[in-house]
Amino acid sequence: MALASRARISAAAPAARRTAAAAPRMGVRARFNVTMRTPEGDVRFECGPETLILDAAEEAGVELPFLCRSGTCMGCTGRRVEGCMVQTEQSVSGPHQEQGFALLCQSYPRSDLVIMSHQEHEFYLADQFSGCEAPKTSSR
After folding, report:
1. What residue stretches are annotated with the 2Fe-2S ferredoxin-type domain (predicted)?
2. 128: three-class secondary structure by DSSP
């Protein structure tokens, strides 16, 4: 009987560790308010600091574009208007992050946020024209 009890405790231990690891750290708010500016209008939902923004939107019934969920297709590109978020290494580069672009499948909130959704096209335009000078016209 003691062996069976020990086996159950051992089997339960990994789940307990996962729960503790997933719990928000001290000093970090448990939930943040996210306002998503979609083509259909503003939508609000909550997102925890350990939940991907795309996942929280989906759980709240907010339909956002995405294809891969791995940070490669760019379909879930959004643009931060207000607030703070962190992104995984599979996200957009530094210059794009400075402009507020983020892959919502790879981003976690760190404060209340306002995000514009459906920004894939704008991301590619910013990429195409960043660092380019306007063509010089001839002075004839």
Report:
1. 32-121
2. helix
Q: What is the pLDDT of residues 118-127, one digit of tens each?
A: 999 999 998 7
pLDDT in tens, 46-104: 999 999 999 999 999 999 999 999 999 999 999 999 999 999 987 788 889 999 999 99
Number of Cβ within a 10 Å radius of residue 89: 6
Taking the C-alpha atoms of residue 49 and residue 29, their distance in angstroms, rounded to an integer, is 8
What are the φ/ψ torsions at residue 56 (nearest 5 degrees)? -65, -40
How remote is the C-alpha of 27 from its chain's centroid? 21
Tokens of 85: 């978020």
Q: Please enumerate in sequence order all residues whose Cβ is within 8 A of that of 50, keeping only pairs 6 or more positions apart, or say none.
A: 22, 24, 108
- CATH of range 32-129; options 3.10.20.30, 3.40.50.880, 3.10.450.50, 3.20.20.70: 3.10.20.30
